[in-house]
Design brief:
The chain is mostly helical. The chain contains seven helices and no strands. Helix 2 packs across helix 4 and helix 4 crosses helix 5.
Length: 166
């Protein structure tokens, strides 16, 4: 079994749709492409925050969301699916949103990563409802943003209850 998901017919790796949708190939790694995509978002987040600041990371999340609507719609059309598992730009946009909301430290960012993955996989209401309700590129992207909001809320609650912010 290959460790990489094959691309849909008509798309090559260097195509902008493929590069954006799979976040430079991170979503093609098996198993757990969403986790690989989330993990691949973190170094970029660090670079953005380090050189440009937290507001730039929030803007980058918004830009990734917009680019993700475009890229995921085209990637899904090429593959004949509604939400291909190798599309991870949704995880990138959501991770950046989570990390922009947290104080920058390895412990906090690790907690944000774990909480986001938990809510993205678990899909409590309304995450799952958003995933079922919206289709196309927006549908691919929207549920992860809701999971990101849950992750930030959970982080804040944990901070209030047990003081995990460092």
């Amino acid at each position: 079994m290959s460790r990489f998901t094959p691309l849909p017919a008509g798309l090559v790796f260097r195509h902008p749709v493929t590069l954006v949708a799979t976040w430079f190939g991170a979503g093609l790694i098996r198993p757990a492409p969403g986790t690989w995509g989330s993990l691949a978002a973190v170094p970029f987040a660090f670079i953005i925050v380090y050189f440009l600041g937290v507001p730039a990371l929030a803007l980058a999340a918004l830009a990734a969301f917009a680019a993700g609507i475009w890229a995921s719609a085209r990637y899904c059309a090429a593959g004949g699916t509604e939400d291909a598992s190798e599309i991870v730009i949704d995880e990138v946009a959501a991770m950046w949103l989570v990390l922009a909301a947290l104080p920058m430290s390895p412990v906090n960012w690790l907690a944000g990563f774990v909480l986001f993955r938990l809510f993205d996989i678990w899909k409590p209401w309304p995450v799952g409802a958003v995933e079922r309700r919206f289709k196309g590129g927006f549908g691919v992207m929207a549920d992860d943003i809701v999971a990101a909001v849950y992750a930030v809320i959970a982080f804040i609650l944990c901070d209030i209850l047990i003081g995990i912010v460092i």
